[in-house]
Amino acid sequence: MLNKKAVVLLSGGLDSAVTLYFARSKGFDCHCLAFDYGQRHHRELQAAQKISRLTDSPLKIIKIVLPWGGSALLDDKIKLPSSKHPSSRVIPSTYVPGRNIIFLSFALSFAEAIGARGIFIGAHAQDYSGYPDCRPEFYRAFKKVISTGTKAGVQHKGIEITTPLINKTKAEIIRLGNKLGVPFELTWSCYQGGKKPCGRCDSCYFRNKGFREAGIAQK
Predict the structure, then answer these.
(1) How far apart are CA 160 and CA 81, in angstroms?
(2) pLDDT for 110-139, tens place per residue?
(3) Checking CA distances to 159, which of 50, 76, 119, 139 falls within 20 to 30 Å?
(4) CB–CB of 47/206 below 8 Å?
């Protein structure tokens, strides 16, 4: 029975969907957040809506504006990376400045307001392009922000950030999601917003590689 409140950052991508299903498997009553932040397309947001409805997890879509750009996901004049062998040592053009800090700040405020004791985010450091806000040390640092900068923290009613995928490969994430019954066919990973995934961008590359290495048919 679901008996503990948690906020889940649900982008609509594969990783966030697995994270939602993981949180639910641990008995959490999940309240989802997604963000319309000026990204190139809304396919992921549409996916988030479908997945939240399927799991009976209420979803709030927060619209924010990042007028300074600085990312290929925000500026169509910046070319999307399409390397077949992306390097984890180079921060890609799809990095959005401070995105996870911004998203976690909203999630933290939401969690404190509704009395949630946990925040789940599907960040992972393995087998992925080099985003600095997807590393374990970032989340350890953010836990200090919670303990020192919130009412819940100073009253020792802590809000725990859980990153269940942080050290998993994409193949391991897919195997976990398959075990949990995640509807991968409803998720969207492609940086492009077409009718079908482009198959060329970094995100498509890692998704395809993950399914292949997991030995599971692509969905």
Answers:
(1) 34
(2) 999 999 999 999 998 764 556 788 888 989
(3) 50
(4) no
Q: Where are the beta strands (DSSP E) in the chain?
A: 4-9, 28-36, 59-63, 118-120, 160-162
Give start and end residues of each alpha helix (H) in 56-201. Answer: 99-114, 136-149, 151-154, 170-180
Domains and CATH numbers, the chain: 4-214 (3.40.50.620)
| Amino acid sitting at position 145 | V
Q: How far is CA 11 from CA 36, 39, 49, in A?
A: 10, 12, 9
Dihedral angle computed from the Cα positions of residues 4, 7, 13 and 14, in that order, rounded to the nearest 10 degrees: -30
The residue type at 218: Q
Q: At 54, which helix (H) or strand (E)? A: helix 43-54
Q: Of 3, 7, 13, which Cα lies nearest the Cα of 203?
A: 13
Compute φ and ψ for 168, nearest 5 degrees: -95, 150
Task: Work out the number of other CB atoms within 10 angstroms of the CB of residue 95.
Answer: 18
Which residues fall within 8 angstroms of residue 157, CB to CB, at 6 or more apart? 117
The pTM of this model reads 0.89
**Per-residue pLDDT tens for 63-75?**
998 877 777 676 6
Q: How far is CA 204 from CA 55, 83, 128, 166, 218, in A?
A: 25, 10, 11, 19, 11
Contact between 173 and 124 under an 8 Å Cβ cutoff? The reply is: yes
**Edge to edge, what strands does the sheet with 4-9 contain?**
59-63, 28-36, 4-9, 118-120, 160-162
